[in-house]
Design goal:
Length: about 350
């Protein structure tokens, strides 16, 4: 099965139309801080094979929205994203003549974290999270007992992603029903390591970010159980996401590739081929949740066949199961033999 995928991608690397490109010696990638660890590992492993010796690959963690701005302005050929492209970004890409391929690569559990020393906070409901983070709470909800009377009368310190973050968009859509419905009186950053430090340095702090950043900082942070629609308080984990019980904060992660650059730039094509050939191992090593092998074959097919555009129509999927998200992502592109 893996050999078939490797052969398929190798054929793609050889068969794609090639037009020499002046930018073949360098690649610039930006976007989601959540996807950053996976792509960073892909670059490291790609360079170790010797395939990257003639190409300089730069990678910046700017947030999904900032990544899409650069991508749709033709400044970068590849962007990481922790949410699907929005309708406004689709229009921006169209105006600049940017056609793209949308490649789901993994799943993530947005993880709500507290300081490791916190002994009284173990679970939160979506309504309690909304009471903490919604715009209506700005300047009003300052102490923990305002969130739940059983919580102590201690000042809240909130730490979270900035507005350029896809994690910000998904979290607020899931918890506050709108990606713009968020208070702004908190410590914000598109760098998840800043959020880690913010929570780790205050015993009454709360923050949220991608699952990998929690796993990499378990000695300083503790994950909070989220109460799902069935009333069960669930810790984020690979198993909880795969069993579709960690809701509503599960989400897919993506790569977006400029199709013209992919056809014209052999360095980009070689890197993407390597990335997808090894994506399951890369995702697992970066502490995220891989897709099924059959699903990765469909991702390969989208790349090989240059299937353009998004399957999400500019909308953010919230509260969907893994199966529903993947069906949305792939059904419109499947050939009869895949149905």
């Amino acid at each position: 099965m893996e050999l078939r995928r490797s052969f398929f991608l190798a054929s793609f690397a050889l068969a794609s139309t090639f037009i020499p490109s002046a930018s073949a010696a360098g690649l610039s990638i930006a976007g989601s801080s959540t996807v950053y660890p996976i792509t960073s590992l892909a670059i490291k492993k790609f360079n170790e094979t010797g395939q990257g010796k003639n190409v300089s690959i730069s990678l910046r963690s700017t947030g999904s929205s900032a990544g899409f701005r650069d991508f749709c302005n033709n400044k970068i050929p590849l962007t990481n994203a922790s949410r699907p492209i929005s309708s406004k970004e689709i229009i921006a890409c169209q105006q600049k003549g940017v056609n793209f391929i949308e490649l789901p690569i993994a799943f993530d559990a947005i993880t709500v974290v507290a300081n490791q020393s916190n002994r009284w906070l173990n679970s939160l409901t979506p309504s309690e999270l909304s009471r903490l983070w919604s715009k209506a709470s700005q300047g009003k909800v300052k102490n923990w007992n305002q969130v739940n009377l059983d919580f102590p009368d201690k000042q809240i310190k909130l730490c979270g992603p900035g507005k350029d973050s896809g994690t910000f968009d998904i979290f607020n859509k899931a918890i506050n029903k709108s990606k713009t419905n968020s208070r702004s009186d908190y410590k914000s950053s598109e760098d998840d390591n800043v959020i880690v430090s913010c929570v780790a340095n205050n015993s009454n702090a709360l923050g949220y970010f991608g699952f990998s950043y929690f796993l990499n900082n378990r000695s300083k942070l503790k994950a909070i159980r989220i109460v799902n629609s069935k009333g069960n308080a669930i810790l984020p984990s690979v198993a909880a996401v795969q069993k579709e019980i960690y809701q509503p904060l599960s989400r897919p992660l993506f790569l977006y590739v400029n199709d013209r650059s992919l056809r014209n730039n052999t360095s980009l094509r070689n890197f993407i081929t390597y990335y997808l050939r090894n994506v399951e191992q890369l995702v697992t090593q970066a502490n995220y949740i891989p897709l099924q092998n059959a699903t990765y074959r469909l991702v390969d097919s989208k790349l090989y066949r240059h299937i353009l555009g998004t399957s999400f129509g500019g909308k953010i999927p919230v509260g969907l199961t893994i199966g529903q998200i993947l069906q949305t992502s792939f059904d419109v592109h499947k050939k009869p033999q895949f149905r």
